[in-house]
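tokens incoming
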């Protein structure tokens, strides 16, 4: 039994996949991943607010809507292997 399985019950790991991969996450990736997150937020947040304004809605609606694709992605690709396979599959 690996370390992740020993620290998290099976039911929790099913709903929180971070418990499976976080113990094995390479520290050298952290800086690049944080930078990617900041850059993505710098693009998505103002864009979502602008689209809401154009639609005549409060900017808060744009912020809520900006979260929707992330939640869909998280539900569809709940582990790293699935996410990588989905975008690197050859046809």
């Amino acid at each position: 039994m690996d370390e992740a399985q020993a620290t998290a019950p099976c039911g929790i790991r099913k709903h929180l996949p971070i418990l499976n991969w976080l113990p094995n996450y390479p520290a050298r990736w952290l800086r690049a991943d944080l930078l990617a997150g900041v850059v993505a937020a710098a693009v998505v947040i103002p864009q979502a607010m602008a689209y809401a304004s154009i639609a005549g809605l409060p900017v808060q609606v744009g912020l809520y809507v900006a979260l929707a694709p992330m939640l869909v992605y998280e539900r569809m690709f709940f582990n790293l292997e699935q996410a990588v396979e989905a975008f690197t599959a050859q046809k």
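note: Residues 3-88 form one domain.
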